Each structure stands twice: as C-alpha cells, then as structure tokens.
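Please, structure for the following, as tokens.
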Amino acid sequence: MKASAVLFSLLALQLAATPAIANEMTFRFTNHAASPVLVKLYSRDRLKSWPDDGRQFMLADRAPKKLSVSCELGEKICFGAWVEGDFDRFWGAGYEGKTDCDDCCRICEIPSETPVYKVTFK
C-alpha cells in the first residue's frame, strides 16, 4: 500500500472517531399571539428537545425571551409553539415538532444567537 493511501486511511479513522463538538446556541422569541404560548426546540438529528423532561418554555407576554441550548455543531434544530391546551393552534414545527415548516429550523453553528422570532398564529 502506498504511503499516501495509508496516511489517508489513518486520517479517515481519526475523523470518524472524533466526538461531536458541543456548542451553545441562543434562540430569541417574542409572543405576538393574543394569549400565552408554549415553545419547545427539537433536534432533527437525534432524540433531543429543549427544555427537556416534558417541560416547555412559556412566552406569557411580549417581552423578548431567550432560550439557550447546548447543541452539536451542524445539528438541525427546529422550534415549535402552541397555545396552552390547544395543540391544533401552533406555529413553526408545532407541538412535538412533527409539523413541516418553512423557516423554523436552524443549524447549530457559530454565531450562536438567532434573530428574534415573532410567534404569531393565523
């Protein structure tokens, strides 16, 4: 085997064994709905959501709120919001993050702060 092929094979093995690098990403939201809403972030690349443990992030008023998460660089994160107790009225990826959406996902990268997303319902 040529030296360049051996070097390439060793480099490929090293890259495959490199763990995912964690990054902190901050999502910013404001509530423009008529009532309080719940927000949750969902990874599309692994079984992970923020906040975890069955909790949600509440937007009770129009004050801007930040939600920071520890994510893996390159990970796709989608956000969803819904009116408390009414899963049919949702925004973005919705309750449990199962809805397809336009412009409700971001890739975990640097810079790590998103624009302010205005939560509204049609």
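The helical segments are 3-17. The mean pLDDT is 82.
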